[in-house]
Amino acid sequence: MSDKKIKNVFKQGAISSEFIGESIAKHQTKTSIGAHNIFLGQVRADIMDGKTVSAIEYTAYEDMANAKFHDIREATFEKFELTCMHIYHSLGTVKAGEICLFVFVSSPRRKVVFKALEYIVEEIKAQVPVFGKEIFEDDTHQWKVNN
Amino acid sequence: MSDKKIKNVFKQGAISSEFIGESIAKHQTKTSIGAHNIFLGQVRADIMDGKTVSAIEYTAYEDMANAKFHDIREATFEKFELTCMHIYHSLGTVKAGEICLFVFVSSPRRKVVFKALEYIVEEIKAQVPVFGKEIFEDDTHQWKVNN
Amino acid sequence: MTITIKYFGLIAEVTKQNEETIDFSGQSATELLEYLFLKYPDLKNKDFQVAQNQELVANDAIITGQELALLPPFAGG
Amino acid sequence: MTITIKYFGLIAEVTKQNEETIDFSGQSATELLEYLFLKYPDLKNKDFQVAQNQELVANDAIITGQELALLPPFAGG
């Protein structure tokens, strides 16, 4: 693990489309970049046993999660030639249709961004202790499990 | 080829970060979507023989290009289970750091969006008759070639 | 020795608390789990992993007395 | 027969026009190219593909008399 400071990846509530647009705008001064690839996770209004998910309430083992995000970040920079990488994950309530995960990678050339982004997203799903309580419209809930 | 009307994929000038943010926002009513994947092509300030690219001027064989974009769109929907897909490409002058290509795919589940997006971008690079004049800071130019 | 155990998600619903400090005289995580299964019988049917000092560990790992956590299935993204 | 030929990018720089209509008495794209190489000698050194009715065709394709285009390497994205 490197000496770099561990960042806080979490944001309270949904990630707004304006925030994503502004993140893109900030990269327009980095003129060595030729390709960006962005993954967005959006909360689905899944229907289970006739009940519809209205929101997911995210909690996390925050210290471990931020350490894992940091490890994923370091491993990704080792594996892939990226100019930059940004990861944001929601905590708290995110309604159906809102965005809970924003992963943004940039590189001079395109081939690497596809591989890097998929690697990061799969690692997040598998390695990071984030928990999701799916809230139904009738206020009952069930616990989400990544597959 | 389907009967669907051929769309115009081209936009005059750079694609703004606000436009991208608004496109994301429009998808928040589609609550069956769980994953978005976005590719952005950005003009690089490449340095060749000591001269820096300041902009690319895009032209296209527009009718053929829009027909090819349409074919790529149809083929992608056949191959991958996507909820929606949007493609925008610039014509005219796009400065270094600005965005010239915006490809946006969405699906209920994540695995398919990575494969679909890479497929679309590679097909665009290979199949669509778009031409790029790289303008250097001293107003000389050279013609870009995809690799 | 005194250890702190953190509970998350579905597991915290069973233990009805997010964290507790206990006095533990055993050695391995297996022994700790036996103790917790007695205290919270519903834990037995739940799917979870054990983390020690923010790393996942096997059930026979030696408890070193720092931060432990019971983590239900991950649901990030 | 009368055919319209479109030129793009680097190719249009050589022909100094984006489009022209010519009277063509040959059959194949090869014959058309021979004619164009005489008219624009610099074309010979350039890399391009021929499209007929908006589809790429081989050099020995039969000219059917509609829209032709000389396309330099693609640079989309």
How are the elements arranged and paired?
The complex is a heterotetramer, with 2 copies of chain A (147 residues) and 2 copies of chain C (77 residues).
Chain A: E1 10-12, H1 17-26, E2 35-42, E3 47-48, E4 51-60, H2 62-79, E5 84-95, E6 99-107, H3 110-127, E7 130-136, E8 141-143
Helix pairs in contact in A: 2-3
Chain C: E1 2-7, H1 9-15, E2 19-23, H2 29-39, E3 49-52, E4 55-57, E5 67-71
Parallel strand pairs in C: 1-5
Antiparallel strand pairs in C: 1-2, 3-4, 3-5
Please give the count of helices of chain A. 3
What form of chain C results from the Cα inertia axes?
globular
- Full CATH superfamily name of chain C: Beta-grasp domain
- Look up the CATH topology of chain A: Aldehyde Oxidoreductase, domain 3
Distance between the termini of chain C: 37 Å
Looking across the biggest beta sheet of chain C, what order are the strands in?
2-1-5-3-4
Biggest β-sheet strands, sense, barrel of chain C: 5 strands, mixed
E-strand count of chain C: 5
Number of strands of chain A: 8
Cα-atom Rg of chain C, whole angstroms?
Answer: 12 Å
The level 1 CATH classification of chain A is: Alpha Beta
**Content of β-strand of chain C:** 25-35%
